[in-house]
Fold these 4 entries.
Entry 1:
Amino acid sequence: MVDFGGWELPQQYTSIRDEHLAVRKAAGLFDISHMGRLVVEGAGAESYLQGLLTNDLASLAPGHAIYTLMCKEDGGAIDDLVVYREAADRFLVVVNAANREKDTAWMRRHIPAGVSMNDHTEDMSLIAFQGPRAHALLPRGSSTTDDIAYFAFRPGKIAGVAALISRTGYTGEDGFELFIESGRVGEVWDAILSRGKAEGVLPAGLGARDATRLEAALRLYGNDMDETVNPYEAGLGWTVKLGKGDFIGRDALAKVKESGPRRNLIGLQTAPGDIPRHGAAVSNAGRRAGVVTSGTHSFFLGHPIALALMEGPSLRVGEKVTVEVRGREARAEVVKLPFYRGSARSAVAPAKS
């Protein structure tokens, strides 16, 4: 168990390797109740969120979700989050655990009359069932899920318990994030594991979650971006809809798009044993040019992988750089992102951890 954003969370239940491979080959079950869950509603809810977030909610129909960023006036990322539209004037907003208090303070600072925001993190739990066989391995008493589109959701039942079933996730695989009343989430957790145990389903901790999200090149707030990094530098410029109207950070982001980002996030691959870690220096042609933001050994791919934030124009796939590994320089190759494309039906990068 480890501290994560003020929550005590499992780093692993069995081994990171076994849990990682379970997600890729069958399915893994994650407790992600540390994520913040905020309900925003009222006649001006859409307009309010449009003014806070980079992506465009106007075209988001009820029953669908969208990945977006919330930025400061200078374009720096306050957080990345997922917004679920439950009705015309009601939204469920999922934020990062470590940022929940910061996010809610920022959102309350800008909230207009007629719009309310309530924090349901304590009474609404969240678990994720992710993997290529997640659909087939849901327990008896579960609603049909095959017709739920990627980044869509609807109310239903899992093991006979009421749930909001969302086809979203943070592993690169197909599967679900399940919003369930906190008093009953244990029943659902046990039912999923009981049904899937013989088929290779395992409970999975933070180690497997980080490795699978990195293989899918999904960003981790606090590592791959923070308030000093803008969406274009993080490779998330596609979430910025400058044409939707005014929002906090729009003018600064428009200038970044026009001139091009000062830094770029790239993917790196190293030899087995040379595992780049967060904060390690990256050099190009003998000059320090960037820093590793996330790095791990990929048990599924069989070698280490990393994301790095590099100064200047983005390096081309196939170019060679060096990375600091345990006090020495190791060779690394720039590779195409994502490192792994799984069973998720879209390449759109969902949130987070």
Entry 2:
Amino acid sequence: MNGDHNISDVSRISGIPKDLLRMWERRYDYPAPTRDSHGNRIYSDEQLDKLVVIRQLVDQGKRPGKLVKLELPELNSMQQQPQLKIDSKLLDELLRSGDASALHDCFHQQLLAHGLRSFIHRVMAPATARVGDAWSNGELAIHEEHLYTELMKNLVRQSLAEHLYEHGKPSVMLTTVPGEQHGLGLLMIEALLRLGGAKVISFGTEMPFRDIREAASTHKVNVIALSFSASFKQDDALVMLSGLRQMIDPSIRIWAGGSAFDSRDFTIDGVSFLDGLHGLERALAEWQRSDGALQAATASPCG
């Protein structure tokens, strides 16, 4: 049975402003919601799923007028790894110059031009991958990598100040396991989850398993989200996730993602492996959609 979603829920889950949804409806005849007895727009599960992917593709620079005409499988096949919107040579030069002001101004202008969500997908994620590769190959000094990391943290934290949802859903705990020191991945995850309406509790990096279990119980979280960078061995990550899953209340979901997982030829019961940042947003949309359907069923007099 299809779910019924009002325009507020669709806007929150998909990340598309209500006014833009209405404009697309007028301009492109999509989405084409039905109306309830009060004349309010009602969207189906299929429409919501398609809108989530359309917004992700728009973030990648695609035109919505062409996207709305395509079916969901074709839209999914169009998703690509984000390409850096700052010239890589310019980025390298700025990092090596030691000019913190110039580096800050460059990324701040990108943030203002794109908005936070698109900035993360189109600038921060590929730039962070580029910096990580350069550092691993010995092309960047430690202080240059640290300068980039702290600059990005400050930019995103400042922008996130207006996106705090104390009563958002789901309640997500963010951390890394012992041995995983990279925190920028967590910051990108935190930003996208908050933008999607989730309540986020971030504990930083390298949290012992016992503390993860106790914190998840104390804060009554719905999800534990863990990030594993490319420097973390995949086999070690899988062993740790299997052990952690056995320690955690079965009702709490575990989301795991990051560059450590270079293949998907594995499964762990109770652990969802997310395919990049777009995979994170799809998991969030699915959780919120399922939660909304559960609440509607619970409230229904017919059970």
Entry 3:
Amino acid sequence: MTWAWACSAVVAVFAAVLFAAPLMGVERWHVIAAALPARAALGAAFAVALVVALVGLCRRTWRPQAGVPVAVALALATALHLPVVLARGVVGEPVAAPAAGQLRLLEWNTNTDLTTPDVVAELAAAQDADVVVLPEVAPASGSTYRQAFAAAGDPLVRVDRHTSTTQVAVWMAPQLARHYATLPGPDPVKTVELRPDTASLPTVLALHAPWPVGARLAGWDRDVDWVAAQCSAGTPVLVAGDFNASTDDFGGARLGRCLDAATQQQDAGVGTWSTHLPTLLAMPIDHVLATPSVGTVTSFSVLTSEDGSGTRHRPTMTVVAVADRP
């Protein structure tokens, strides 16, 4: 039947294009850039549809002329995408226990105020975080967070030079915060660069990149290019935030010399958005990346313990073993 062949061709071409996009260097194109983070959900949908098609063929509710080409296309789509996701790791790992010589970074897009500062502060204290990156907070929330961190027994200091419109916030332990100064990122609202005064500490980049859809794609390109450029400068760099993209959108697990922490720990298939979906189907769009000179990533964990907190993103916790730090 004509409709069956047409649907089969659309499914096969769509799946093949998504699979080949990072290999062909077209991962930043319109539509493709937005679709790539959903690889896991799409792969699962292809697999479920394949099972339905096979059941229909076995029960003869579908005619072979219609069912066979659809099943073949769905089998191709499933084979192209699900193995990639599974190979990247979908189980997750526990957070490395606190030890000397660590840099412990908590990253959490709380979607401004979908959870309260005390919840963030309690999680940071429980994870013994000495760096907290919040890609989207209310601009006037600084004093509220400061009080929450103090009440939780983890008196962190806000490092970025924020304004009345700044949404991205970086908090650090006092002994780290005193070494950092703020430089402007390409988007004064959603990007920040923190430059240390000592070579033993990394430059820290924090960002909330736009969703790469329509006119926002240009802003997303700008932010990712900025990260790649900073990561290629030859100095230690640590990056954290909501990229609204998977590593497929980067064209690989690296941006410049920065390597995705989840990829290093075989957890790159664990989804962070949305909390309404299981981690296997959610999009892995929150990332921490680091140059090798920062240290060795000993764990990268997507925390599901806060799924009921009201936020749409899962927090991530990264532990880096560093050779030297103040």
Entry 4:
Amino acid sequence: MKSGALVLAWNTEEAALLEGVLNKARINGVDNAELLGSDSVLAREPGVSPSVEAGILIPGEYIIDPWTTPFAYILQAVDNGAQLIRNCEVLDGGFDGNRWRLHTQMGEICGKTIVNCAGLYGDLLDQKLTGASNFHIRPRKGQFVVYDKSTFSLCHSILLPVPGKRSKGIVVCPTVFGNVLVGPTAEEQESREDSSIDSQTLRQLTIRGSQILPGLDQQPITATYAGLRPATDHTEYQIHSDSNNHYVSVGGIRSTGLSAALGIAEFVCEIIQGKETYQGANECYSWPIANPITEIQERDWQKPDNGGIVCHCELVTRREIDQALSGPVPVASLGGLKRRTRVTMGRCQGFYCTAALSEITAGHFCNDIGWNYSDK
């Protein structure tokens, strides 16, 4: 959904940096960004605190579904002949001059080319397979607060701070699911698995959110969560290739990775096939459609014969759940089912629908899913 974005300055020091931000945007090809005074900011977003000093309007920004997008990529890959293997750790491997042999928890996997995009473990996988890595992962935790759907009308744009050297800072924005989100933090840590949240940090997020958008004060919070970004000891993405060994490493892809994914994929294809040889998407490819779960598209509960609503907070139907549990890429966990359908993600956080959901999903999450694979 096209929302536009506002980079907001809250004091004279930040306002002085906006010209540099604007120049960088234009260097990067964003020609329609423009400086706004405080009156123009408030005319566009009347819910923003009147203490705002100035801003930059970026009209071409969008908010998107962060879960269905990568699922659609996987679905398309599988539909066009790829094989998905889950819960399959790479233990070690090597290149014999002709092809790679990877030793995994599910046996040997062979292939001509390896693309390492292992996220938080990308540097460790580099070391396992090549003996070295061009970057070191420094996990960066981001905590978020998600407000109730009653807050959705409080803002229409993505509200960004003037970016710092380490992070874009705390963002306030509407979501395609009808909520308002505040976050993320940027907390360096050693653990690659600890995505816990803490009440003090979340309290600071709510305070900052209310300072930016005063209408958030005292509004109910639907959910809190944290995610880990694979930050590195470099500012830039770390994409490296070894053509002699048919190996590409794609590391340090942080929160901008969702919007950059297609560009990164095309770049990696050019590396593998050669820029002159790569032809882009083939017209013979099939283009399967993932079920929409956003509030800006028609939902399944609005269609007939959907089996009834199971999750009333997020209006998730029995048919949506059944489809997620089957098909070419069935969900393998409750977390996957949540992201595929939004079930249990609403105000009650599953309090009312968990019993029915347990019956529907019985037997589906017991076994790991994987296939033996060897390319021909």
